[in-house]
Design goal:
The complex is a heterodimer.
Chain A (H helix, E strand, L loop, with lengths): L1 H7 L2 H8 L15 H6 L4 H24 L9 H23 L1 H7 L1 H4 L5 H9 L6 H31 L1 E2 L2 E2 L3 H5 L11 H18 L8
Antiparallel strand pairs in A: 1-2
Helix pairs in contact in A: 2-9, 4-5, 4-9, 5-6, 5-8, 9-11
Chain B lengths: L1 H12 L2 H5 L3 H6 L4 H30 L20 H23 L1 H7 L3 H4 L3 H13 L4 H29 L11 H15 L8
Helix pairs in contact in B: 1-9, 4-5, 4-8, 4-9, 5-6, 5-8, 8-9
Classes of the chains: A mainly alpha, B mainly alpha.
Chain lengths: 215, 204
């Protein structure tokens, strides 16, 4: 039993899980899935729910496509992938509407846009189509986590400085506001999401020099 | 007059890139030179202008609650809107394929210019986003939906051509090494977004 577990998390498999967190991060290095990442990072709660949804879709999508990989004719693979992802997203959307109606309202069209989220299509295309189920599962989790930590970090910064709250709870005490502290309303506006991500990229690439681009 | 308002509003105030970040992936990937940016931008206008009206018809005559009454009165309570994602994406994927084939037959020169970008567009968020915003905002006629689609396309076109022009220039500037490429493009887009916010106060 123990030795079997060992092979499941062999060095190569562990790399699948950890690489997307930093070296090949889907957002800051591969530039995939930016569309949804930026628009819903006003509050941590939204970002968290969004990351969970992406994780669920990517997890099951990778399993299904990986299981079907020898049956899908390569000419129509994009359509097959889109149908699988669209069906999963419909499920996620209905579940969110039923159990978290207010978050679902705020996410509006961005749940639907998970269908065209390039991370999911990219991983299906580049990984699940050519690999067995277990590595595909690890790959899905790794990439979803890489997406999630950037999303939640951006949301954390924007919510903290934009409305002085985290997950809806007031962080800065009333005293601060009486002394003249003000929420920085520009953080809530869309352009600051881009600049926050740019700062994350800046920090990440000055720490990890091999990621620096030529131009 | 209403149509012009919707058009202007979707070009400047509800700009796909600066207000909603839709289609960012191809916006960042294909904005290295102005020529390719113009090609991709034109293809986006084209495909949005075709798919949004078709999806509008689907939405209003098949998917919406009570939209099926033209078949029989028994269906007045049927609500198929949960199927909208799969319908929209199927329409987009097949229209892109169809447009590609038609353009190839009718105008090889246009195909040469747009050809490589058309397949990319099926997974461009701004196309599906256009369809979903159309559904959410409940436009009252097909003309309004078309004006919205063309306006969003033109807004996207403007954004990608502008960033491509800036990126061509910035190649000669001294940018801090870790910010080169992606980082500086993000910051410039953010600043452009702030500039575009000045359109927000316009009352139409």
């Amino acid at each position: 039993m123990e030795s079997k577990k060992e092979s499941l998390f062999s060095k190569k498999n562990r790399k699948l899980l950890t690489d997307p967190l930093d070296d090949v991060n889907p957002i800051s290095i591969q530039v995939l899935g930016i569309c949804s990442a930026l628009a819903i990072t006003v509050q941590v709660e939204q970002a968290f729910v969004m990351s969970l949804s992406v994780l669920a879709v990517m997890f099951f999508g990778n399993i299904i496509i990986s299981a079907l990989r020898n049956l899908i004719p390569s000419r129509i693979r994009i359509i097959v992938e889109l149908v699988v992802v669209a069906a999963l997203v419909i499920l996620v959307n209905e579940i969110l509407k039923a159990f978290l109606p207010d978050v679902s309202e705020k996410l509006s069209v961005f749940v639907g846009l998970i269908i065209t989220n390039c991370i999911i299509m990219g991983r299906l295309e580049a990984f699940a189509l050519g690999n067995k189920i277990w590595p595909s599962i690890l790959d899905a989790i790794g990439n979803a986590m890489g997406y999630a930590w950037i999303l939640i970090l951006v949301a954390f910064v924007r919510e903290l400085f934009g409305s002085g709250k985290i997950w809806g709870f007031q962080v800065f005490p009333e005293k601060f506001y009486e002394l003249g502290y003000m929420n920085n309303n520009i953080m809530i506006l869309p352009p600051m999401a881009l600049i926050t991500v740019a700062l994350i990229i800046w920090v990440q690439r000055s720490r990890n020099k091999k990621l620096i681009e030529e131009n | 007059m209403d149509l012009v308002n919707i058009f202007i509003k979707s070009v400047f105030i509800d700009n796909m890139i600066f207000a909603y970040f839709l289609g960012m992936c191809s916006y960042l990937a294909v904005s290295k030179t102005v020529d390719t940016a113009v090609g991709l931008g034109a293809a986006v206008i084209f495909v949005l202008g075709i798919t949004v009206p078709i999806n509008y018809l689907l939405e209003n005559h098949i998917l919406k609650e009570g939209a099926l009454t033209w078949i029989s009165d028994d269906l007045a309570n049927t609500d198929l809107s949960f199927l909208s994602f799969i319908m929209f994406i199927a329409v987009i994927a097949s229209m892109v394929q169809l447009v590609e084939m038609i353009v190839e037959k009718l105008s090889p020169s246009l195909y040469g210019a747009l050809g490589i970008f058309l397949p990319l567009i099926a997974v461009n968020c701004s196309i599906l986003g256009g369809a979903l915003f159309m559904q959410e905002r409940q436009y009252s006629s097909m003309a309004e939906a078309t004006a919205f689609a063309l306006g969003s396309g033109v807004g996207w076109f403007l954004a990608i051509v502008a960033i491509a022009a800036i990126r061509e220039k910035i190649r000669y500037s001294h940018v801090p090494a870790p910010l080169r490429g992606l980082g500086i493009t993000f910051i410039i887009t953010g600043l452009m977004g702030i500039a575009f916010m000045s359109f927000m106060g316009i009352q139409l």
